[in-house]
Amino acid sequence: MRPAIRLGVNIDHVATVRNARGGQHPDPVAAALLAVQSGADGITAHLREDRRHIRDTDLERLRTEVDAPLNMEMAATQEMLGIAQNLRPHACCLVPERREELTTEGGLDVAGQSSVLTPKVHALKGWGIRVSLFIDPDPAQIAAAAATGAQVVELHTGAYAQGRAGELERLQHAAAQAASLGLEVHAGHGLTYENVGPVAALTPVRELNIGHFLIGQAIFDGLPTVIQTMRAHIDKAAGH
Ligand code: PXP
Fold first, then answer.
1. Which residue from 97, 132, 170, 181 has the fewest beta carbons nearer than 10 Å?
2. Which proteins does it associate with, and in what oligomeric form (predicted)?
3. Exposure class string for 125-150: b at 16+ Cβ within 10 A, else e
């Protein structure tokens, strides 16, 4: 039987709600602790360059107060590399960032930027950090990701989540290609109870990172229930 798929819970949007009023509530670190108690295997947080949700102090607290792997999403900038060097999270997921975007709209162009990205991947690995590259399910990007020395690719499921034709097949081929190149396969973006099953059913997938839907649905059902329900959907689709 394949190993259980890990569920990484992205708590960025707890910080979005907190920041709407400028105070301390709701605390994303308290949400992370509850997520882990409720069955999350890890916590994901994106320190954006404009600090629109997660802040530097949130990451420092996530690292010291939460006993679960921390996946720091970040742009491949010198500033973020310096923060990762000090923080030493379990993993860094390199993502493209455009300041005006609402969310991470597309994957990283690893094929077009390999000479810039490769030394950064090596630097992170040298600090003992596992490196993941967030890419579209595109054969050229996967080959380029493997060539950088990154251990993991996270496949962008946004187009699939929007219902675009052929996207599940693209994810399937991409996952198989990545696994054949020795990359660990993660996936995420836009996943919900309704659409997570077919992605979880892709055999090479080892981890799913899910945020916006879980935090939104927690308003109605509470964070423990939504995490347990998402876990159940994932486990059922993966044959557990
Ligand atoms: N993975 C990556 C690399 C992301 O940038 C995001 C969004 O921050 C997610 C997963 C989670 O996406 P969503 O919030 O739509 O579940």
1. 181
2. Homooctamer; tetramer of dimers.
3. beeebbbbbbbbbbeebbebbbebeb
